[in-house]
Amino acid sequence: MADSRNYEPALTTDSPVSTKKRNSVLRNTYWLLSLSMVPTVFGAWVGVTTGFTLFATTSPIMSALAFLAISFGFMSAIQQTKNSRIGVLVLLSFTFFMGLMLSRLLSFILGFTNGVSLIMLAFGGTSLTFAVIATVATLSKRDFSLLWGKWLFVGVLVLLLATVANIFMHLPALMLTVSALAIIIFSAYMLCDVQRVVNGGELNYISATLMIYLDLYNVFTNLVAMLGIFSDNRD
Asked: What digits encode the pLDDT tens for the residues 82-102?
């Protein structure tokens, strides 16, 4: 969940050229974001059906470090190729990997008698959250990144520390707290990221897609985790 975003003031010019550019970036971002869900779902399906067990034989700490190393490797490659079509392929490869990594959580939830319903409820909640946030980001004149940027980064660091601590403590209450805070923090990040694109603060649609995708991914996974904690219908 580490985040290294550096928010810069959004462009404020209202010239026809800048407006056209912003609309183009926003349109391409939403298009690529929709497309990125295909390899994510496919990766999750492959992982669930094959019993994907990457890192399963290692310690939780080593598993987390390996996941972070691969993830940051992908994100670095995306940033290096974001100005070419290769960047799209690297991004889609990354979303496939993230789908694979999602499969262990989904497999656990599918062990509940209402597992499919829980996953669909989390998906619906994530979609509704994105729809509301995209609307607010488009209509609001307030710059949320200036208000929340630094605090959100601190929040992510706290979440990382709490997540690492719970690897050893295994406290359901702490896991529930972490999931609830993660949903709030990454929903706020989503608002800042979408607004950056709307206002012209981000003019590369591949970078914009990566940021918003990570926000959606974190909101969805933590919603699934929360619903799993509250459910008592385990087979």
From this structure: 999 999 999 999 999 999 999
Alpha-carbon distance 95 to 42, whole Å? 10
pLDDT in tens, 169-223: 777 788 888 999 999 999 999 999 999 999 888 999 999 999 999 999 999 999 9
223's tokens: 């919603």
Is 28 part of any domain? yes
| 95 lies in some domain | yes
Place of tokens 């497999």: 107
Render 4-63 in DSSP notation, one character per residue: -----PPP----HHHHHHHHHHHHHHHHHHHHHHHHHHHHHHHHHHHT--TTTTS-HHHH
As a whole number of Å, the CA-based R_g of the chain is 18
What residues are paired with 112 via a beta bridge?
234
Q: Is 112 helix (H, G, I), strand (E, B) or coil?
A: strand
The answer to whether position 189 is within a domain reads yes
pTM of the model: 0.87
Phi, psi of 201 (to 5 degrees): -75, -20
The maximal CA–CA distance of the chain, rounded, in angstroms, is 60
Residue 163 near residue 1, CB atoms below 8 Å: yes
Does 173 map to a domain? yes
Count of structural domains within the chain: 1
Alpha carbons within 13 A on the beta-carbon side of 119: 17
CA-to-CA separations, 182 to 63, 125, 234, in angstroms, rounded: 20, 14, 24
